[in-house]
Give the backbone structure.
Amino acid sequence: MGMAMGHCRQGMFIALVLTGVLACTLVLEGVGAAEDTVVSGHGRTTAPAQPASDWNALLSLGYLPPADLHGVPASVGISDYRFRLARNLKIDNELTLTLGGGYGLKHLDAPANAILPQDLHSIYLEAGATYRINEKSFVTLKLYPGLNSDFNDIANDDLRLPMLLLGGHAFNSGITLVGGFAYRLGYHAAVLIPVIGISYQPNDKWRVDLIAPRPGVTYSASRQVRLFIAGDFASDEYELHDSSLGARVIRYRDYKAIGGVEYLPQPAIKLTGALGYAFERNFDFYGGNRPSLGMDDVPFLKLSLDVGW
């Protein structure tokens, strides 16, 4: 959560993932690898246009430097790698199907006394449909069945099924209303995540997205360069198969304030660089007797490459 993940193509108002990976991705950034783009702006405030590319690949890297744990004499750094590949299938002018999948790796750089896993994996399939009710309204449904685990073993408990339902309607004033929810079957926390808000695009340069859980403001300096600031909520959960960790499930969560730039050398290629600040950071544990571990706030870096063909 996350998977995320902006996975939007140019000319689309909104795209969903769950992230992917990431992210984005509003930046997705993160309700898990499969949900990395629960909501992502970077498009016109109309119903989603047909995808500009049949295929799309997204690769992202996020890095949070070492930060002290609360109550434990140890520090933890986090590296987050995500990859997504998807195919858009246009059935007719109203209906587009999406099929694909992705992989996410969250690496925890921590000493032994932190009693944390080293590598956490998420591998998932993606299946979805976007239906254009008319030129101003749309509805999207996406499913991301997959495995979230340390992969020391594989069991039924590793299965997760994030799903997302989203709809929107654009008005001639430049305002688009968006509403829906992400439901994460198999998760212990943040099972239901509402997605609701308003996107306002007064002209071709500016767009303001007051959309929970990922608000943002985007300025298009030119066809090739966009600047943005945004907020994000991350909640990534993984099954554990190491009894020495004292829990069956680990969850990482934080809030982020983000600023960055997108560069599009061609309409189907997007490079994104973002810097930000992560706060209210915690490791939560389930299926054991371990208390939550808080962490110090840190700045962070995220880089991503989005390619269509």
In short: The longest strand covers residues 249-266. The CA atoms of residues 130 and 138 lie 7 Å apart. Residues 55-308 form a domain with the Porin fold (CATH 2.40.160.40).
